[in-house]
Amino acid sequence: MTDFDKGFLYTAVVVGAFLLYNLLRSVNEWIYVSRLGAMKNTLPPGDLGWPLIGNMFSFFRAFKSGNPDSFIGSFTSRFGKAPLYRAYLFGKPCIIATTAETCRKVLTDERFGAGWPKSVSDLVGKRGLHGVSNQERKRLRQLIATPVASPEALSLFIGYVDEIAKNTFDTWERKEEPFEFLTEMRKTAFTVMMNIILSDEVHDEKELNRMANDYTLLSHGLKAMTINLPGFAYHRALMARKRLLKTFSASVAKRRMMRKGDESETKKDLLTLMMEIHDDEGNKLSDEEIVDLIIIFLIAGHESSGHAVTWVIIFLQEHPEILQKAKEEQVDIVRRRESPDSGLTYNEIRQMKFLQKVILETLRLVNLSFALFREAKTDINMNGYTIPKGWRVLPWIRSVHFDPENHANPREFNPSRLEDGKVKLGTLIPFGAGSRLCPGADLAKLEISVFLHYFLLNYRLERINPKGDVQYLPATRPADKCLARIKRLMETSA
């Protein structure tokens, strides 16, 4: 072969590869955009990535590289700063909302319904809060508002949290070797939620550990590719759901039988409250709805709370002046009690004004959920762009929480930024907003507050790797799961 032939062949290969690359990159655009007609001219900037996988490779690359915000940054660098971008994520074309204004519009506009990936609806259930219509969700929210968020219910639940929190820290303090604080905190938060939900049916430690492990598998599957084959996270999560479904269905059936007998023997807990509640027409929650709600509450109650407690403690240890202020608030609460030996009350939780700012600032910085998931129920015009019917819409929480226009020095831990009147509407959304605001937000903050109360009064954390790496999937966490020791303070207050 002559040099000319080699050069021609090389050029042909390069040109062919270039053409193939551009052809593949345009397949999703052709499938999903070309059918929109004139509407395609008003779509937000962006691209739909590769066939089938869309932008998922760049999504995983960003989140696993230690720089998750580079994912949105790549859109900004290529298409300029915009309030909305188009992409293809989790199996569907989508619109990413990146500003506080557009996120608030999406979260409060009833033209957007639930848009969670198939993996979420498959794993948490189709009769819970994630997979139902807006109208059905409103009904469920109204029904569970009293069992989950009323002062009476929260006052009841404190008793389930208080004793476990005190005993757990005491147990951890006696450990001589370092342990994974996050792992143990998640297990403990799971035990707390099991007590809150099924007070008189809490299983033995071995059973609790098995169920907690199933919940870990379930959580990992929520943000995984929907590949239902052995060895993949989604398949393992489906198997875990089947086991949990069997366990909780049996618990609900058993409780129904007990209530047919002597209801006075049934201890008050979340399951009992969910069985008792009814709407104005006398309609109650079905067993299927109750089981799916239990699965959702346990995911949020132990995953989110366990991570939140861990990160609050980490940030407080890194900022001694803020830790001292938070501790002084807790000491003052104990000092005002008539009896120093009495446990926490709901009224005392409400007095923890500064601690609530610490919790919210932690959730702003950590972003346990990088985005929320909605779906356009009709063609919608927003900020001069068109959001097509059926497209998924993702309010990108990280972009809102780290926007310097919303929060000065957004990477800095500063609870004082949340003083009354300083937070702009829609710029702090760790629990969502609008009609789909997390109904268990108050319960989660209560659980977190109880654990932090006893930690601040009596303990300190000694991390083994304080400068260690952070991982961002499936949730933001220290790579070493916060390997640490718990030490009792020389002078304790409770």
UniProtKB/TrEMBL annotation:
| SUPFAM superfamilies, per the entry | Cytochrome P450
Q: How does it sit in the membrane?
A: Single-pass membrane protein
Pfam families from the xrefs?
p450
In terms of InterPro entries, this protein maps to: Cyt_P450, Cyt_P450_CS, Cyt_P450_E_grp-I, Cyt_P450_sf
Q: Which UniProt keywords apply?
A: Heme, Iron, Membrane, Metal-binding, Monooxygenase, Oxidoreductase, Transmembrane, Transmembrane helix
Q: Which domain of life is it from?
A: Eukaryota
Q: Which residues form the signal peptide?
A: none
GO terms assigned for molecular function: metal ion binding; monooxygenase activity
| Keyword field contains Iron | yes
Gene Ontology annotations for the cellular component aspect, listed alphabetically:
membrane
Looking at the UniProt entry, the stretches that span the membrane are: 7-24
Q: Where in the cell is it found?
A: Membrane
In which residues is heme bound?
Answer: 438
Cofactor(s) needed for function: heme
* Family per record: Belongs to the cytochrome P450 family.
Can you say what this protein is called? Beta-amyrin 11-oxidase-like
